[in-house]
């Protein structure tokens, strides 16, 4: 079972989370999500536990406890939704040229 760990301190480590969750059973993976530009923690993580009963026990016992100075928010992770090509709004319209259409400039090109 995949577990979402929210409200995580930026100083928390994957090893620390692993030790916290291993009190309730086997832990397959721990992944703190990091910003792709700065490399700093984004404040949440995912913990994978192979046995569902142990994972549910961990969720019930760890949710709300203080860890590294923050009260954790723990729940079962939702499945990743398909994002398509760009986003859920569909394809973007094609644009033709700059300001005011293909000729550009708007009213500047109008002859009086």
Secondary-structure blueprint:
Blueprint: E1 2-6, H1 14-21, E2 29-34, E3 41-48, H2 52-62, E4 66-67, E5 70-71, E6 73-76
Antiparallel strand pairs: 1-3, 1-6, 2-3, 4-5
What does this protein look like?
17% of the residues lie in helices and 24% in strands. The protein has helices at 14-21, 52-62; strands at residues 2-6, 29-34, 41-48, 66-67, 70-71, 73-76. The termini are far apart. With 112 residues, the chain is an alpha+beta fold. The radius of gyration is 24 Å and the shape is extended. The strands form 2 sheets. A 4-stranded antiparallel β-sheet has the order 2-3-1-6, covered by helices on one side. The protein has a domain at 2-76: Alpha-Beta Plaits (2-Layer Sandwich).
Summarize the structure.
The chain contains two helices and six strands; from the N terminus they run βαββαβββ. The protein has about 110 residues and is an alpha+beta fold. The longest helix has 11 residues, at about 50-60.
């Amino acid at each position: 079972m995949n577990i979402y760990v929210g409200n995580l301190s930026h100083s928390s480590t994957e090893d620390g989370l692993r030790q916290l969750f291993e009190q309730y059973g086997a832990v397959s993976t721990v992944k703190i999500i990091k910003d792709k530009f700065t490399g700093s923690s984004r404040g949440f993580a995912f913990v994978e536990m192979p046995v569902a009963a142990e994972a549910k026990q961990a969720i019930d016992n760890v949710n709300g406890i203080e860890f590294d100075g923050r009260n954790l928010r723990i729940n079962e992770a939702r499945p990743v939704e398909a994002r398509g090509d760009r986003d859920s709004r569909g394809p973007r319209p094609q644009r033709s040229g700059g300001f005011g259409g293909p000729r550009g400039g708007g009213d500047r090109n109008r002859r009086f």
